[in-house]
């Protein structure tokens, strides 16, 4: 597979995994729910920004850029997002997920499972 094919596949998978628009994700990242979920590098909530929250900010940046301006590092993050969304979706809890930390974590990564 050539590098361009890999980039095309990655871009397609990323845009399928991320179903929130940049403005919608930006608004979500400002909420208390968004800030209280996820793994924090310090190992605790309040120990700085969570990995998912930081990823959400990167996703907004990626969505707002032209595809031709994306770097290899950008594609690497896109693959990380796709992997996270796929793994997390496979762990969907039963019942109504509207107000769950499971959904909130996914939303930090740009995917709202209720869409």
From TrEMBL:
One Pfam family matching this protein: DUF3140
Keywords: DNA-binding
Highest taxon of the lineage: Bacteria
GO MF annotation list: DNA binding
PANTHER family named in the record: DNA-BINDING PROTEIN, POSSIBLE DNA-BINDING PROTEIN
UniProt protein name: DNA-binding protein
Organism: Micromonospora inaquosa
